[in-house]
Amino acid sequence: MAYLELKDINKIYPNGFHAVHDFNLSIEKGEFIVFVGPSGCGKSTTLRMIAGLEDISKGEFLISGKRANEMGPRQREIAMVFQSYALYPQLTVYDNLGYGLTLQGVDEDEIEEKVTKVAAILGLTDYLDRYPRALSGGQRQRVAVGRAIIRKVGIFLMDEPLSNLDAKQRVTMRSEITNIHKETGATTIYVTHDQTEAMTMADRIVVMKEGVVQQIGTPKEMYFDPVNMFVAGFIGEPPMNFIKTSIKDGIATIGENKLDLKSQFADKISAYEGKDIMIGFRPEAILPIATDGAFSMKCMVELTEMLGDNTNVYVNIGDDKAILKVNPHNTPAMDTEMEFSVPYESVYLFDPETEMRL
Question: Which residues are within 8 A (CB) of 351 and not within 5 positions of it... i.e. 6 or more apart?
Fold first, then answer.
């Protein structure tokens, strides 16, 4: 039996807006689950239903097999970290960390022991006598996380906890939250719109769009085995390239390039003869030379972006555009022709109408 179960969960507001549609997910104890998707996709609403902050319109939420729909947040033994730090400005870091324990009637010696331990884990030992206004954004976020984990609850819910931090702080806090999860073993559900956070932190990812779950899987499954164009385009940076073309005699034409799809994908394209098809490939999957076992294509270089460890090359392939990742030491000049190849195993085919992968 799964630790947490969401069965056909729906959220419908009084004005008729259907925010979450038939959400189904089973979560094992100790898993780190990340809900990811664009703004307004329903991920935070789903988290708030799990927390008990939003009513569930339809469906059932179970904790250890027991129906939890009618339970209040306190009964669910859940700790939540919000996008805003929600610290008490009149309390020191020490008192902010221990506040929840004080409300529970825990004695002062035990509070001191737990606060000291959590502060050490989060690198806050030297800041216990400071007030929130004297802390950096990253330090305040660590206090907010610490206030959640000190209660030793079974479920942590985190709603965009790193969105207010700068890029360097986000990288640091990602690793800290991952380490905290390993140490506490608590079941964690984390909401973000940042696919990098999802890929680096999650045991499993739930990709949502317009209130509907698109795919559930490990980061590796999301990247290498996307079920549709939305997931393929959302996971990965830069996003997957998509080129729409038609098939004639098993051949796809992209600009001046002829791709013999029938030799590699005959079973997938048999129903698309004379019809449109969408070809996808990731920027980093390309090879900068023509080679066996790959489709070769010629293109014109429009723009280059030197990023240090790689260069993004924006190209025109006939009337279509694509982004290629290349070695920065072999960056082509702008307004020149270049040739690249895409290994057969790195080519994805999609139905342009349903956007589902073939």
Answer: 277, 278, 358
Predicted TM-score (pTM) above 0.85: yes
Based on the fold, state whether residues 203 and 255 are members of the same structural domain.
no
Q: Is residue 295 part of a domain?
A: yes
Task: Please check whether residues 226 and 289 belong to one and the same domain.
Answer: no
pLDDT digits (tens, 9 = 90+) for 167-201: 887 888 888 889 888 888 889 999 999 999 999 99
Angle, alpha carbons 161-166-331 (nearest 5°):
120
